[in-house]
Prior knowledge:
The protein is mainly alpha-helical. It is built from eight helices and two strands, in the order αααββααααα. It has a two-stranded antiparallel ribbon with strand order 1-2. The model has no long low-confidence stretch (mean pLDDT 77).
Amino acid sequence: MDLSIDFDQLEGTMLAGVRMVAFIVIAPPFSYKAFPGTVKAMLAMGLALAVAPRAAARYHALDSGAFVVALVVELAVGLTLGFLVYLVFAAVQSAGALVDLFGGFTLAQAYDPQSQVNGAQFTRLFEMTSLALLFASGGYQLIVGGLTRSFDAVPLAGSFSLADPVHAMLAGTTQMFLSTLQIAGPLVVVLFLSDVGLGLLTRVAPALNALQLGYPIKIGLTVMFAGALFMALPSVVSSLTGDAVTLLTGGR
Length: 252
């Protein structure tokens, strides 16, 4: 009995698997530490097998040295794409950190080993909410679809310019800061104006202890206005998912 092995398909599947594994290790929501590593590995290999016929259609088997180089390239591509998606969704976490900072919650910050986030209440609340919305709304499917279409933008073992990922990271970082200000900006302005009001009150009535008055007032304002901000998170996550898919597909 003759056993024929299609090395083009086999190597293409292995290279696709490397990109998938590197992406899942970094990109949310798959990077969440509560998911076992075995599940992540099975998901990555399942996605690699599913995308292999499309990704390896134009791939040809390489010799040993070139194949090792191709593995390193695919690892770098997967890590870069995962980091770009992480940058996009870091805007929600950064918005929560701004709310904690101006609302006076940073004194109660703690490290969450599951999400690897060091922040106070709203930082972790926004992070968990964005992850839950990604799964509840099917946004993770759009991210997976964008990852599979990335093989059209960056083919297996294909050459790409180092300027492209650097430019994408710079654009992603800029977009992250802009999104952070758009999400938390209104509440931050309200809290800043409350600080200004307390400062003026101290000047008018020096006997009042502005520090003791400031914490309960700012906490009350934060809890009151954060509800409206929390209700806007579904549309924010939807918009960020679209930005992440655009980065994964190279704007296609």
